[in-house]
Amino acid sequence: MLRSTLVFAVALLVSHSLVSLPAYAEKNASLTPKLASVGSPVVQETFDGEKLDKVMSAVKGEWKLVDGALHGKELAADKHAAVLNFQKKNHNSVVQFSFKFDDNTKGLHFSLNHSGGHLFRVAVSPDKLTVNLDKDKKDPKSKAIALGSAKGDFKSGQWHTMMVEMVGDKVVVQTDAGASVSISHAKLDTDKPNYRFVMRGNSLSIDDLTIWEVN
User: Fold this and answer.
1) What kind and span of H or E run contains 20?
2) Per-residue confidence band for 19, with pLDDT thresholds at 50, 70 and 90
3) Residue span of the signal peptide, if any (predicted)?
């Protein structure tokens, strides 16, 4: 009787532990916004077409649709990281997308500008998630500022999901792997002309891009 009770208790504990574990390396994972409630998305892009939509502008590098995903690659001739602009003006919004890096690509930047240039970016590396306020290129004394960071586990060759919330002067970033960063800075409360994906190396894949506007 005691043996049966112990076996049942262990089985119950294991079952509970499995249910409590966060999802890892999940494509298009279900993430819940923390800063605001959202309704219907204004953008739902699954990249199933044959060529880039007009709102997607390849500024640097090679960007094309491959096997139902947006694929980015750095070009040596550019002498610059590959950059793709998703041309949609925004101020307060929530953005979610799936990403995967392969080969010699070790991460990506999700970047936002303001009318005067670079504003801030979310940087992903294999073991870290960081939110940086960009330096003002017009001010020689300006420097980039790390506003927050968290340890992560973003393995190459696996899909992951990221949500970025931008409401007023606050930004919250969360991922399917459990890594999250919450920061605030007065400069973030401004109009932004677009969303930008930035990468170095041979292979970055983006999919399941969803955007919600926040009033």
Assistant:
1) helix 2-20
2) very low
3) 1-25
Encoded tokens for 120? 């801030």
Cα–Cα distance list, 35 to 8, 92, 211 (Å)? 41, 10, 15
Contact by Cβ (8 Å): 119, 90? no
Q: Which residue in 63, 108, 61 sits closest to 81, CA to CA?
A: 61
Percentage helix, strand, coil for the chain under 3-state DSSP, each rounded to 5: 10, 45, 40
Write the CA distances from 142 to 135, 136, 173, integer angstroms. Answer: 5, 6, 25
In angstroms, the Cα distances linking 53 to 74, 79, 196 are: 20, 25, 15
- The residues, any chain, with a CB within 8 Å of residue 57's CB and separated by 6 or more, are 84, 85, 87
Distance from the Cα of residue 141 to its chain's centroid: 29
* Beta-ladder partners of 71: 64, 205
How many CA atoms lie within 13 Å of 83's alpha carbon, on the beta-carbon side?
16
Question: What's the token pair of residue 51?
Answer: 């060529």
pLDDT in tens, 34-60: 999 999 999 999 999 999 999 999 999
Q: Which domains, ranges and CATH numbers included, belong to the chain? A: 2-213 (2.60.120.560)
Q: What is the mean pLDDT of the chain?
A: 89
